[in-house]
Design goal:
The protein is mostly helical and 330 residues long. The chain has helices spanning 2-10, 12-25, 32-45, 53-67, 73-104, 117-129, 133-148, 151-159, 170-177, 194-202, 219-252, 259-269, 279-304, 320-323.
Length: 330
């Protein structure tokens, strides 16, 4: 249930995307409400254990691009400025996150947050003020290595199959069957500790759940462990096909057709882009997200989101409160 509730909570970005899209699509819409919500999401994403501030920037860029089919010079400058701001914030976070996380957890080495929000924000500000140009350069190198996420995979290539044999699909099989085995019916189902798998296939001794963290090889490396270099490519291709089918359903389903379905692709498919994600978390996360999307399409959209559908419907096909606006696609 917690996974499903988290999927529903992430759907807030559907509303944010729609607001951003309409704000920049129509010149008569005031941008004050959008700016207030943007600042709210950005400020309250600071002071936490993770760099969740990137989400509000990313969704803003996607919606901004969707609302501006013709990229004029002003549009390009605005998008570029937003992108630069996101990268700069990411570099600052990369420079201070180790020290800031030590402050958050009180030196306990776990993913807990102590202290009030205002105090955490003040401490973060003090750390950022101490960042120098040299720190930014080191942060840029660290950020690139984090994004490409190839280091553990590189070690795996030297371990599998020379020391540890290929698993012949065991990792992906566990990932696919795990969402079909709710723990209330299968109490013996093991927990996901990515650090255990990473330690096994790299030979490193890594901190795990006992330290409040998990270090993954990533689904690319796990696919190689399962099937080798050739089978890995086929497996990743099939996973891409599944994601494509999910995207197609979200954007073409009659109950979600239009901006709602497109806006939902972000919270549903966003977690699938992280190379450091394990296969178990990818499949489980996609299952929970698609279930949440289906429930919205089945029970919420027909009753509460009918006003977002294509305005080209005839008055006879349009609910009475919307009939007057049906003749005006704008």
């Amino acid at each position: 249930l917690s996974q499903l509730l988290l999927a529903f909570a992430a759907m807030k970005w559907t509303g944010y995307f729609m607001l951003t899209y309409v704000t920049f699509l129509r010149p008569d819409v005031k941008r004050g409400p959008w700016l207030a919500i943007f600042l709210f999401e950005f400020l309250f994403s600071l002071g936490g254990f993770f760099s969740s501030f990137k989400e509000v920037f990313a969704y803003t860029l996607i919606a901004f691009g969707a609302a501006n089919a013709r990229f004029r010079p002003g549009t390009i400058l605005t998008g570029a400025a937003t992108f630069v701001a996101m990268i700069y914030c990411a570099l600052l976070w990369q420079s201070v996150k180790v020290e800031f996380r030590g402050y958050l957890n009180g030196g306990a080495g776990t993913q807990i947050e102590v202290g009030e929000y205002v105090d955490r924000l003040a401490t973060l500000g003090e750390l950022i003020m101490k960042v120098e140009a040299r720190d930014i350069g080191e942060a840029a190198d660290s950020l690139v290595r984090r994004l490409i996420y190839t280091e553990y995979f590189g070690v795996v290539l030297h371990v599998v199959p020379d020391i540890v044999p290929h698993e012949n699909g065991a990792l992906w099989y566990d990932s696919v069957t795990r969402p079909l085995m709710p723990r209330i019916l299968f109490p013996d189902k093991g927990s996901i500790d990515e650090s255990v798998l990473t330690s096994k296939y790299t030979g490193f001794s890594l901190p795990g759940m006992e330290r409040g963290t998990q270090i993954s090889i990533g689904y690319m490396g796990e696919s190689y462990i399962d099937f080798g270099p050739a089978g890995m490519m086929l497996c990743i291709g099939l996973w891409g096909y599944v994601l494509g089918r999910c995207y197609r359903w979200l954007t073409t389903d009659s109950r979600l057709a239009g901006v709602v379905g497109f806006a939902m692709t972000g919270p549903v498919l966003w977690p699938m882009v992280y190379l450091e994600s394990s296969t178990a978390k990818l499949v489980g996360g996609l299952s929970a997200n698609m279930l949440a999307a289906w429930l919205i399409a089945k029970f919420v959209a027909p009753r509460y989101l009918a006003w977002t559908r294509d305005a080209r419907a005839t008055p006879e096909e349009t609910p009475a409160p919307l009939a007057r606006s049906a003749v005006n696609p704008a």
